[in-house]
Amino acid sequence: MTSELHHGSPHPAPVIAVYKFKAETSDAEIHDLLRRHRAALVRGRFTTERLPFVLRSFADRSVFVEVFDWRSEADAPRAHGDPLVRAVWDEFAAKCEIVGVPFKDLPEAERPFCHFEAFPMTYEAAKTPAKVAKAAAVAKSTKIPKTAKTAKTAKAAKAAKTAKISKVAKPSRRARPVAKKKRR
């Protein structure tokens, strides 16, 4: 099955990208580059909200497999025109021996069930289009003080009001009259 069969589909298009990094590229550099790749794709609205996962080859420790989703098949060619994505891809080209290793060429692909090592990734909270729209709606419906000074004042007023309520609701022990028990 080739991607031409799905070309133009409006549905998410998962992709498996395989990179063979140069020996001198550290794990920290690889992690940072993959994290920035995700961020560039999110900013350009080329990928879905689903986080990618990254695998490392057991047979060749410099080979990494990144699995992510294009929002649609049409987003892959559009990403080539985005300057931010291009800049990250240029860094891949500089730090890799090969970008786009055919999956069939991996030693793991010779087995019916390919085993890889999971490469732990951390991503910043993605500001995907849906999350941006939700945040904008919340911001519109929430009264936000215009300056930091009024924000501090509003916070102080709320704290004072809460303190007054709690004092009224819970009188101190000293303020309560003590009833004496009658002796029989």
What does this entry show, briefly?
This protein is an alpha+beta fold. It is 38% helix and 15% strand.
Could you characterize what this model shows?
A five-stranded antiparallel β-sheet has the order 4-1-3-2-5, with helices on one face. Strand 2 (53-56) and strand 3 form a beta hairpin. It is extended. The chain folds into two domains: 3-131, Alpha-Beta Plaits (2-Layer Sandwich); 138-169. By secondary structure, it is an alpha+beta fold. Helix content is 38%, strand content 15%. The longest helix has 22 residues, at 148-169. It has five helices and five strands, in the order E-H-E-E-H-H-E-E-H-H.
What structural keywords apply?
single chain, 184 residues, alpha+beta, Alpha-Beta Plaits, 5-stranded antiparallel sheet, 15% strand, extended
Shape: extended
Query: Averaging pLDDT over every residue, what do you get?
Result: 78
Could you tell me how far the N terminus lies from the C terminus, measured between alpha carbons in angstroms?
A: 97 Å
H/E element order: EHEEHHEEHH
Main beta-sheet annotation? 5 strands, antiparallel
Number of helices: 5
Give me the side-by-side strand order of the main sheet. 4-1-3-2-5
Into which percentage range does the β-strand content fall?
A: 5-15%
Total beta strand runs? 5
At the first level of CATH, the class of the largest domain is Alpha Beta
Q: Which stretches are poorly predicted, pLDDT < 50 over at least 5 residues?
A: 1-5, 165-172
CATH architecture call of the largest domain:
2-Layer Sandwich
Structural class by sheet pairing and helices: alpha+beta
Kindly provide the radius of gyration, computed on alpha-carbon positions and rounded to a whole number of angstroms. Answer: 28 Å
Number of domains: 2
